[in-house]
Amino acid sequence: MRNGMLLRVTIILAIVAAINGYIGWHLKVFLSHLFGASFHPWLYWPVFWIVAFSYVIGRFGTKVLPPTLTRLLNIMGSYWLALIQFGILILPVTDVAIGVLYGASVSSASYVPILGWIVIAIVLILLLAGSYLARTPVIRKYEITIPKQAGDWKQLRVAVASDIHLGAVVGNRQLRKLVKHVNGMKPDLILLPGDVIDDDIKPFIRYRMGQTMRELQAPLGVYAVLGNHEYYGGHIPAFVEQMEQIGIRVLMDEVIHVQERLFIVGRKDKSAEHAAGGRKSLVSLMEGLDLAQPIIVMDHQPYQLDVAAAAGVDVNLSGHTHRGQIAPNHLFTRRIFELDWGYLRKGNLHALVSSGFGTWGPPIRLGSQSEIIELTLHFTSNDREEG
User: Fold this and answer.
1) Boundaries of each Calcineurin-like phosphoesterase domain copy (predicted)?
2) What pLDDT shows up at residue 106?
3) Would you state the torsion angle of the CA atoms of residues 284, 290, 296, 301, taken in this order, to the nearest 10 degrees?
4) Spatial separation of the C-alpha atoms in residues 278 and 175, rounded to whole Å
5) Is the pLDDT of residue 304 over 60?
6) Distances (CA, A) of 160 to 21, 133, 186, 191, 320
7) How confident is the model at residue 387 (pLDDT cuts 50, 70, 90)?
8) pLDDT > 90 fraction of the chain, expressed in percent and rounded
9) DSSP characters over 212-274
10) Is 320 in contact with 302 (CB distance < 8 Å)?
11) Which residues contact 244 (CB under 8 A, 6 or more apart)?
């Protein structure tokens, strides 16, 4: 198994290196035409490869490099991940144009700088637009009627924010936007369906992000579940402790009965199936629950919605997909998940998948936008359902 994992990692790194080499060669050709004899490949390539692998260096160098340097490498590497995708999409088109111009016997001294500046302009526009969509959250509003009674509650306003990804890239500035928007909703309940942190918990602690999160206010409390990135980081006990210190309850295959009116089922992430302790099935978690009362499930990855529907879940909240984060990645998430973003009615189940508040890797979104869900639940004893 270890040899198989090593082989997969080697193949992935080889592919990444090949893609970066492809991009690096195009950039070298452009710069050599731009600067002529003053361009020095012996200096260019070392700098290029450091930038190209800065994300990897920053991630795995936390134990030996200063925190400020690792944060700089992470930020630089995150943006480079976006540039890799842009390069994959744009440069083949550029190569076709070069082939046509070369075949027409046009001098490369004429078309290389022009094509280079066109590519740079397109990339800058994409970066600016993507940064805006990632840094400017929208509030998605959903109203759902559940044909069940919840004591004397007629309705419940729930704020949902998944995939915050707090860390070296998404920090207190973006987190303060979350607090402002969520508290502005005046929610009764706040739910965080996984990936609150982005792998490493050290930036969360170092930059005192918990003090900002502490400002989230809801009379019925704030609850979270684990996402795959909490498992990737491997600091789950420390994360749970940090959350408890600021009054956020992390549900790990647990059920909370809110004021004896509504059940919140918090599942461990699907990643836990391969970790020590595993994770319980949804059916076992719901065993003994009063199905006459509303049931909300938080499950970070939106798998097996049919199981949730059959088990009697009313609302299933997930994230994880980011809706691909950068188009056209949404074409892949759409094929992987039954619901990769938005709302789906499945029997009596109302499934919601958020594109997430934060970002993984580059703080860029194209074809998706940073979002917070404002979910209004209406309760009725009637069999007829509206909304």
Assistant:
1) 156-323
2) 81
3) 10
4) 31
5) yes
6) 41, 19, 12, 5, 13
7) very low
8) 80
9) HHTT---TT-EEEE--HHHHHHT-HHHHHHHHHHTTEEEPSSEEEEETTTEEEEEPPPGGGGG
10) yes
11) 250
Q: What are the phi and psi torsion angles at 243 (to 5°)?
A: -65, -40
Average pLDDT of 107-112? Answer: 84
**Distance between CA atoms of residues 51 and 45, nearest Å:** 10
Give which of 332, 96, 71 is closest to 203, Cα–Cα. 71
- What are the residue ranges of helices labelled H in 303-355? 305-311, 330-336
Phi, psi of 323 (to 5 degrees): 50, 40
Comparing CA positions, the residue from 212, 210, 240 lying closest to residue 224 is: 240
What are the structural domain ranges in the chain? 2-133, 139-379
User: Within 13 A of 240's CA, how many CA atoms are on the CB side?
Assistant: 11
d(CA 317, CA 168): 26
Structure tokens, 255: 């059920």
Q: Are strands 155-160 and 349-353 parallel, antiparallel or unpaired?
A: unpaired
Tokens of 68: 């400020």
Task: Report how far apart, in Å, the C-alpha atoms of 349 and of each of 102, 113, 145, 299 are.
Answer: 59, 56, 11, 14
Distances in whole angstroms, Cα of residue 382 to Cα of each of 143, 262, 385: 17, 17, 7
**DSSP string for residues in 64-121:** TS-HHHHHHHHHHHHHHHHHHHHHHHHHHHHHHHHHHHHHTT--HHHHHHHHHHHHHH
The H-assigned helical ranges of 269-381 are 282-285, 305-311, 330-336
The pLDDT of residue 384 is 45
CATH, domain range 139-379? 3.60.21.10
Provide, for the chain, the percentages of residues in helix, strand and coil under a 3-state DSSP scheme, each rounded to the nearest 5: 50, 20, 35
> Are 256 and 224 within 8 A, CB to CB?
no
- The structure tokens listed for 131 are 């940064």
Q: What does the alpha-carbon distance between residue 364 and residue 370 come to, in Å, rounded to a whole number?
A: 10
pTM, entire model: 0.91
Backbone angles phi, psi at 310, to 5 degrees: -70, -30
Per-residue burial over 155-191, b = 16 or more CB atoms within 10 Å of its CB, e = otherwise:
ebebbbbbbbbbbbbbbeebbebbbebbeebebbbbb
Q: Kindly state the average pLDDT of the residues 306-325.
A: 96
